[in-house]
Amino acid sequence: MTTTPEPNEADSAYGGDGDGDSDRHSTVSLGSREGLCFTEEYGRRYAVFGENDCLFPSDEQEKVRLDLFSHMIEQVLGKRLHCAPVHLSAGNERVLDVGTGTGIWAIKMADLHPTCLVTGVDISEIQPVWVPPNLGFELFDVESPWTWSHPYTFIFARQLGGSIVNWSGLVRQCYGNLEPGGWVEIQQLDLEHYAEGPLAPQAGSRVRELCDLLSLALFSFRRRLGVAGHVEDLLRRHGFQNIVHGRIKVPLGNWPKDPKYKEIGSLRQWELERALEALTLKPFCKGLGWTPEKVRAFLDEVRSEIRNKNGQEKVHLTSTL
Ligand SMILES: C[S@@+](CC[C@H](N)C(=O)[O-])C[C@H]1O[C@@H](n2cnc3c(N)ncnc32)[C@H](O)[C@@H]1O
Asked: Among 70, 146, 198, 314, which residue has the fewest nearby CB atoms (within 10 Å)?
């Protein structure tokens, strides 16, 4: 359970500067193109797009992690790319991938549906240049007004918890840019883990602490980590119909007996161990005032707990997509 207060999306009074040691870390502009540039902080590369100072890196390490994450979610969904019952075979349907990251989902959708027009948008230019002919990537801040002239058949957004300030605005723009009968799918794998099985009376304390601390840190940037319940409520408030909130268990570690879930749990462990630094370094330093050394020492403890090497009885952790 988290005791973190909920960020108020309408209130812009929250400061994003924190009182951390960010001033002690110089920001280096690595390149720029039409408002885009990258900065290097804490040894990681972050995109900067207009006013939007990204909290999570988008460097080579992160690209590898995002592609592995995408593969893992496909396994979780039984090799499907989405759950919405959208029909994309009539031709010229339009698909939008919001916060496309490396673009891997958009590329697969474009390959799978060659008569669809797929667009992937992101504030970080980390997508490949060679892509299917029916796919285009745009550098675009989805929190700014959407100016596309044609509505979309299917709008997809995955793993944007902690990135978006105004979820209500995003859901409103999805609604306004959707064809009648179109679908929106928003996926988020929770960082909140709970214990499973008779061996685990309580979830690991460091893993839980991580989630609580990150929620708190993101709050200082007016962002929320856990978005699933909130978004479901917003979809309803903005007039969407046929809302389905599915929950799928995702194990952490290779403890499941079922080979499918054993593989998923192993992938999740690999992915989460690499996500830890990406998720926490900047938010903890700038939002909570931690030093990078303190963050890394804390993450060592989290990793140790995830690997069950801390002398505790084996803890079977699970989270929800
Ligand atoms: C955790 S990654 C998820 C990437 C992809 N959706 C996936 O699941 O593989 C979040 C992505 O959202 C992008 N992002 C964050 N804020 C954004 C914004 N305001 N507009 C567009 N993209 C944004 C980030 O640059 C990053 O690539």
From this structure: 198
At 136 the three-state DSSP class reads: strand
Range 42-54 average pLDDT: 88
Nearest to 321 by CA among 264, 250, 225, 256: 250
- For β-strands 135-139 and 194-196, DSSP reports them as unpaired
Longest dimension (CA), the chain: 59
Residue 29 has pLDDT above 50, yes or no: no
Query: Tell me: domain 22-320, CATH 3.10.180.10, correct?
Result: no
pLDDT, mean of residues 242-249: 92
> Distance (Å, rounded) from C-alpha 121 to C-alpha 112?
19
Burial of 166 (0-12, 13-18, 19+ CB in 10 A): middle
Domains of the chain: which residue ranges?
22-320
Q: Is the pLDDT of residue 316 over 70?
A: no
Q: What are phi and psi of 77, to 5 degrees?
A: -90, 15
Which residue's CA lies nearest to atom 14 of ligand 1?
Answer: 99
CB 124 less than 6 A from any atom of ligand 1: yes
Length of the chain (residues)? 321
Are 152 and 95 contacting, i.e. CB atoms less than 8 angstroms apart? Answer: yes
Burial class, 282, CB count within 10 angstroms (exposed 0-12 / middle 13-18 / buried 19+)? buried
Ligand 1 pocket, residue 9 CB under 6 Å = no
The minimum-distance atom of ligand 1 relative to the CA of 157 is 6
Q: What is the gyration radius of the CA atoms in the chain, in angstroms? A: 20
Ligand 1: distance of its center to the CA of 65 in Å? Answer: 13
**What is the C-alpha to C-alpha distance for residues 124 and 296, in angstroms, rounded to an integer?**
25
CA gap 220, 13 in Å, rounded: 10
For residue range 193-202, list pLDDT tens digits in order: 877 665 454 5
